[in-house]
Request: fold
Amino acid sequence: MPRFRTPFNGYSVKFSPFVESRLAVATAQNFGIIGNGRLHVLESTPGGLVEVAAFDTADGLYDVAWSEENESLLVAACGDGSLKLYDLAAPAGANPLRSLQEHRKECSSVSWNLRRRDLFVSSSWDDTLKVWSLARPSSLSTFTGHTYCVYHAAWSPHHGDVFLSASGDTSVRLWDLRQPMPTLLLPAHAFEVLSADWCKYNDCIIATGSIDKTIKVWDVRSPQRELATLLGHGYAVRRVQFSPHAESLLASASYDMSVRLWDWRAGGGAPMRGWDHHSEFAVGLDMSPLQEGVIASSGWDGQTCVWHINNAP
Amino acid sequence: MEHASQRLSVLAKQISTVQDGVSGLSLQACSAGDSAAYQRRGVALDDVVIVSALRTPLTKARRGGLRDTDAIDLLATVYRATLDATGVEPAAIGDIVVGSVLGPSSQRANEARIAMFFAGIPDTVPVRTVNRQCSSGLQAIADVAAAIKAGYYTVGLAAGVETMSAHPMSWEGGVNPGVERFPQAQGCLMPMGVTSENVAARFGIDRRSQDAFAAASHRKAAAAQAAGKFKAEIVPVQTKLKDPKTGEERAVVIDADDGIRADATAESLAGLKTVFKRDGTTTAGNSSQVTDGAAAVLLMTRREALRRRLPILGVFRSFAAVGVDPSIMGVGPAVAIPAAVKAAGLAIDDIDVFEINEAFASQASYCVRELGIDGARVNPNGGAIALGHPLGATGTRCTATLLHEMKRRGRTARFGVVSMCIGSGMGAAAVFEAGDAADCPSPRVMPGSDLNLSRDFRG
Reply:
């Protein structure tokens, strides 16, 4: 299985939606607590993962998202609260194209809109979310209401105006760009929620991952009770993601250093497969939208791995 | 490096171990039930915590329902209610400290002792009074908290009482002629209303905004009363009322505040005459009411509360009393609040709810403006203009109102402040943190698990 070793600790990995062999990795020095950050752009070749570009930042990087309309554009979420926009096609000196500084605390995640392709959303430890347009130098709107760090934001793949947020205030909220208040406030867990994602095949299904070690799957039309609780991780679930290719498949990365694959419809709530190639927290996770079954993870051990779910990593 | 330590604390919370099967219960240490961005303090077993905060209704002096009730009955009612609510055996109380301002000093100390026996507290428990004017109730809480911290005892009762029907504000005897030589000493002799006019004039608080502030106080209190919000903090008082004409006595139960005027508006208040100064701004409508009432707060160490399995209503975090110019004594909170908040290691922005005593709309609105506090965070259930200001009880009364409000808000309110100005030129403030009683998520049944079954059943 191809592996790439980053000098800093991995926080996020994302496949390009345009080039199937390409992926970006956001990293931060000293586990993201203090120090610099580096964004790596990697190419998967027969000889393994090869770095094609790298960008240094003064503070750690916690997340990265590829543009959905321009294959060479990506945006990274930085510990100093800024969002940094990079263009792989631009001359070396031109990057970052922009540094969007509005969040007052660490920027924790960024998600690019699949429907309205000029928009992206960022979440921050300053308890807010901000929606940005490529055409505008400042954010379009700020969404407040969370009462503790917001750890994750994700656009609905079905509706261009809808996104969700997961927060340390133990709630997951659904937002509509056209409304300042959340359209749904889901008290998803009794403990901090670190991640959430939308099902790509059913616009009402979401999954949430918490430091209570569980993943829960919800139908947003009946938020009183979860559809399923997936048990198996031994520590906080840092990232959950639905498969782009199968309705009931989802993957997770955890502070228990493992990456797991689940069929939430299967019942029983136990993982289908698990991989423990990381020797530190598994933090970043992505499933390739272009190659079915290909999955990538990155962790605090500095390893970024790409493999097929039918193989051992 | 502060940055790094904050990041470390955020990450540390994510890594904290969550026991299997406690998804419905959350311990304060690892729950995210806070509104401040970062956990600034851990949980310590020697924290001083509040397990009960109750008050009598506040009623108008000379006209209200408690006009014929003496300090003994008021205190005995809140003592007894506190013991009943917590199940603490009376002999466990290490000391009772009672804030009282206008009552005759020695007699009041004696009444506080007599009230103990009315409430079934044994003679082995000591009692004393404290008088720092309008902050006496808060001072009582701070004194008990300090004594618990010092290890003098582990359970203490702080109370406050005022019977303004029987003991109106007055000055006895002559005035020392030397006062003329000290302008600040002269300030101490000013009627409180004159100090209010001074604040309004010096800091440009106009009549209109004072009346609006007063109307808002009535409106918020009326809304809170209509919503039943005061039910949790009020103890009904079984007492008697004398008919002023016939002298006939009848037994009554007083269970609601009677000073709130739901129909008060800035316009209706604008018609009132000023009291202290021609062309002034302070009227009976935008000043606190003269009121009877009592309140009591039970404090103990967290260790003791856990041992007794008592839900923790709040944690006592800091207290500060400060001095200011007596002729503008109303500015006290503007100095005391930053001092108390700083002592708690916090910033003003971290405070979710303020109970700032509305001695006068002039000084209360000045303090809110001066501190740059969002008005929505101040006195969400109205203040002394609507509810009344029973001097010695106000500190404990505000604490009861604050902690019950924070409990209702749950995780969205983590820190609260009680503050007031003090006649003769002082201010006091205390910071409270929401306890775990405010953080009770409902347990959720996990599919396919037997978490809600007893341990015996699970074998």
Summary: The mean pLDDT of chain A is 92. The longest strand of chain A covers residues 48-57. Chain A has one domain: 3-308.
